[in-house]
Amino acid sequence: MRAGTRNLLGLPAVAVALLTALLTTAPPAAAGPLIGGHWAKDGLARAQIYFVDHTGANWPVGGTVNEWNKASGVDSYYVTSCPGSWLHCVNVWEWNDSGDNRYGVTFYNIGANGHFTSAEVWLNSGLARNATQTRKTACHEEGHVLGLDHQFTRTSCLMSGDAVANGISVYPSADDLATLKSLYAHGN
């Protein structure tokens, strides 16, 4: 044993101190699940994401984008065409497949620095057949685009499943918005 270290229960003092710190450290205030990436700010005060709507009238993409825009640190915009190739534009598409068990799906690419480089959303009108489910599904997939993973509480549209049968919210929860604030509280 080297001088200056103690051995407690067979562990060096440094390991005991680290274990104690891990066990006594409070979890972060916004502890919602994350996908593992987020959008860069690219020199702006907040990251800006443009949701480009290619869906039909049954999908309330604009309304759900407005709900996500309540989050601090990231701006979400509803548009029908991308205002510039250098912007974070996310195409939102509709497909109709009643045999597919997914209400929607989000595809994204994450660069080496942890920033999303692109994303795309597909909403399934073959499965989401009522206004509650279409709103919940649009909200759910847009939350993934912003960097959030599934939630396991009915108060968040990020919970998976049938919104009507399971009583799942069609809106982001306060925890979802707080998690985004924490996720985007960085310098780049």
In short:
The protein is α/β, with parallel strands linked by helices and 188 residues long.
Helix/strand-derived class? alpha/beta
N- and C-termini, Cα separation: 44 Å
Shape: globular
Rg on CA atoms, Å: 20 Å
Number of DSSP E strands: 7
Kindly provide the name of the CATH class: Alpha Beta
Kindly give the count of domains: 1
What labels would you give this structure?
188 residues; alpha/beta; Collagenase (Catalytic Domain); two-stranded antiparallel sheet; 27% helix; globular; disordered N terminus
How would you characterize the overall build of this protein?
- Strands 4-3-5-7-6 form a five-stranded mixed beta sheet, with helices on one face. Strands 1-2 form a two-stranded antiparallel sheet.
- Helix 2 (61-68) packs across helix 3.
- The protein has one domain (47-183): 3-Layer(aba) Sandwich (Collagenase (Catalytic Domain)), CATH 3.40.390.
- It contains five helices and seven strands; from the N terminus they run E-E-H-E-H-E-E-E-E-H-H-H.
- The protein has 188 residues and is α/β, with parallel strands linked by helices.
